[in-house]
Amino acid sequence: MIPLHLYLLVSAGLFCMGIYGVLARRNAVAILMGIELMLNAVNINLVAFWRYISPESLNGQVFAIFVFAVAAAEAAVGLALIISIYRNRETVIAEDVNILKW
Amino acid sequence: MTITPETVAFAIMSVLVLGGGLGVVSSRNLIHAALYLALTLFGVAGLFVLLEAPFLAAVQVLVYLGAIAVLVTITIMVTRRLMGITENVNRQWPVAALIAVLAAAILGFVVISQFAGVYPTQAVPPDTIERMGQSFASHQGFLLPFEVASVLLLAAMIGAIVVARD
């Protein structure tokens, strides 16, 4: 069997790449992709803890399924917003969308 | 650790996940980033199989690879006309890299010091998927969160249609 900490290390690496992507990329679609990476890292953690700590309980898997649902909703609304911004302001660069910035 | 088929599969899937993630955040061409994202999502599905959660692996392939990755790719193609951007990272990228490295160090320290060498003590019950399906439809289980998730998905669908319409 694989020890638990290897799964957790892979997940931590993926999460930190997601943090970098969210903070450093300029394109709004790239920022959304960073968020997807972070959600996937969380899902690896949830399922790994479910398998190694309490496989007889359902909570870990059910939590991961709700993360799937929220990620799907977030991607749909986020990409719709990006398309709408692109249509109105001809840009997908996050720092150019400054109409609400004081 | 001895080399078994499981460790080989874990190594391959980890390389797919981490390499794909690196590609997503470092590719200049966004189409390449989306393809790397699909690679990462596939690797995560493989990790779910190794963790004996086959239902989650199937949902991962259907929802993430089948819907989200395709949606991201289509969005990139639709907004591609103005993509001739010279730099793909903003001014604060050194700070972002520093934060990411610090978070990786802290997470790695905690994982190594708290969870090193934990192995599963119990086998997964063979009726896990069946019990999960029943718990989604019972008051003792997850009926209320299930219904709330349906309302959330409906609201997201209507919102996406309204926002993206001409």
Outline:
By secondary structure, chain A is mainly α. Chain A contains three helices and no strands.
Structure description:
The complex is a heterodimer of chains A (102) and B (166). Chain A is mainly α. Chain A has helices at residues 4-24, 28-53, 59-89. Chain A has a single domain (4-89), classed as Helix Hairpins (Orthogonal Bundle). Chain A has 3 helices and no strands. In chain A, helix 1 runs antiparallel to helix 2 and helix 2 (28-53) runs antiparallel to helix 3. The model of chain A has no long low-confidence stretch (mean pLDDT 91). Chain B contains 6 helices and no strands. In chain B, helix 1 runs antiparallel to helix 2 (30-50) and helix 2 runs antiparallel to helix 3. The mean pLDDT of chain B is 90. Classes of the chains: A mainly alpha (102), B mainly alpha (166). Chains A and B meet through helix 1, helix 2 and helix 3 of A and helix 1, helix 2, helix 3, helix 4 and helix 5 of B.
Ordered list of secondary-structure elements with their pairings:
The complex is a heterodimer of chains A (102) and B (166).
Chain A: H1 4-24, H2 28-53, H3 59-89
Helix pairs in contact in A: 1-2, 2-3
Chain B: H1 5-26, H2 30-50, H3 54-78, H4 93-115, H5 128-135, H6 143-164
Helix pairs in contact in B: 1-2, 2-3
Structure keywords:
heterodimer; A: 102 residues; mainly alpha; Helix Hairpins; 3 helices; elongated; B: 166 residues; Four Helix Bundle (Hemerythrin (Met), subunit A); 2 domains; 6 helices; 73% helix
Question: Quick one: overall form of chain A?
Answer: elongated
Tell me the Rg of chain B in angstroms: 20 Å
CATH architecture of chain A: Orthogonal Bundle
CATH C-level class of chain A:
Mainly Alpha
Q: What is Rg of chain A?
A: 17 Å
pLDDT averaged residue by residue of chain B: 90
CATH fold descriptor of the largest domain in chain B: Four Helix Bundle (Hemerythrin (Met), subunit A)
Distance between the termini of chain B: 58 Å
Greatest interface and its participating residue counts: A-B, 72 and 88 residues
What would you call the quaternary organization?
Answer: heterodimer
Number of distinct beta strands of chain A? 0
The major beta sheet of chain A can be summarized as:
none
Low-confidence stretches of chain A are: none
Q: Which stretches of chain B of 5+ consecutive residues score pLDDT under 50?
A: none
| Architecture per CATH nomenclature, i.e. the level-2 architecture of the largest domain in chain B | Up-down Bundle
